[in-house]
Specification:
Blueprint lengths: L1 H4 L3 H14 L4 H13 L3 H14 L4 H13 L3 H14 L5 H17 L3 H13 L5 H11 L13 H17 L3 H14 L6 H11 L3 H14 L4 H11 L4 H14 L4 H13 L3 H14 L4 H13 L3 H20 L22 H5 L4
Helix pairs in contact: 2-3, 3-4, 4-5, 5-6, 5-7, 6-7, 7-8, 7-9, 8-9, 8-10, 9-10, 10-11, 10-12, 11-12, 12-13, 13-14, 14-15, 15-16, 16-17, 16-18, 17-18, 18-19
Length: 363
Amino acid sequence: MEALDADKLQTAIPLFRKALALNPRWAEGWWSLGTAYYDQESYAEAELAFQRVVAIDPKNGTARALFGLCEFELGDDKAALRDIEASKDLGIDLDPHLRNDVFFHEGVLLQRAGMFGGAEQPFASLCIGNAGGDDVARAFGMAALRMRDRLPPAPGSEAAAVVEQVGRAACLAARKDFDSARQQFTLITGAYPHFPYVHLAFGRVLLDAHDIPGAIAEFKREIDEGYDRVLPMLQIAAAEYKIDPAAGLPYAEQAVALAPQLPFAHYLLGLLLTSTGADEKAIPELETARRAFPQDTQVYWSLATAYARVGRAQDAAKARAEVARLSRKSAQQGEGAGAGSTPGESPDAPIRVTDAAEQGPKN
């Protein structure tokens, strides 16, 4: 251990390998060997060592995290995301540097996978913890602007400037400094009004700041740019649901027409139809959502309401019974009602357009 503590890695590594040849179940030895290789940036060797630690001690969340970080460095994004997320569930050592590394790499992996909303969560955590440096700003900006690229834009390019500025503004919003974030986004959208998704990113920040009219105005500007009409339409429909369902209805209808493969679009259209008294039209939309999200209590609540209003008492009773069954199941698993669902966790919850809502349920 003295050789390792003194950073004499070249001496430490062969010593650990000899000891492990004698005792291959020595988890601490594999851990030390793995960290020695990791410090040398010998990620393939470190991966094998941490794999042995995880095999011996499956509940070691810190080893699982380092295993995932090695997989990241070796280009195995899918495995890296799986193991990094598992490490967070198991619990990671309190070392702040390691925790920040895990959050950052998780965010990057989610961004590369197109799970942009999910990616923003670890980046926001880093910003809240004042760990939002240049790398975090660039990665946060790429997620906010829905870029799946493996690397940030080339330094000095317009895209690089927009990405970094958006990331810093998003970081301010994560810290609840919405006034500063609004000022920054106003400058960005003024300087780069036609950059893809910049108005969408601004609108989402305004939603978090509870400026619904401002958010809707930015979503409409995004629609006018024409890069992606469906997503801002869904955002507008969701934002209007609790305020002015009739105003949100045309946007949900257009979203369904443009992207009929998205179950969430049907769900949102169904909600708006029931809110405007068109229950007969709402039922087929909600039934489409139910087939896609069979574990979601909110879908069944909405269906029960629509069925009851059109006189389908038996169907309404079945839907309410399914709500009760799913709620009991969630309680037994220690989860909240509607846990794991895409549309929402309760009938009164605000509707948010999440990654799963945009992409549909996973098989």
